[in-house]
Amino acid sequence: MSNVHLVDHPLVQHKLTLMRRKDASTNSFRRLLNEISMLMAYEVTRDMAMQEIEIETPLETMQAKVIDGKKLVFVSILRAGTGILDGMLSVVPGARVGHIGLYRDPKTLTAVEYYFKMPSEMSERDIVVVDPMLATGNSAVAAVDRLKELRPKSIKFVCLLTCPEGVKTMQEAHPDVPIYTAAIDRELNDHGYILPGLGDAGDRIFGTK
Question: Is 199 within any annotated ligand binding site?
Answer without folding.
Answer: yes
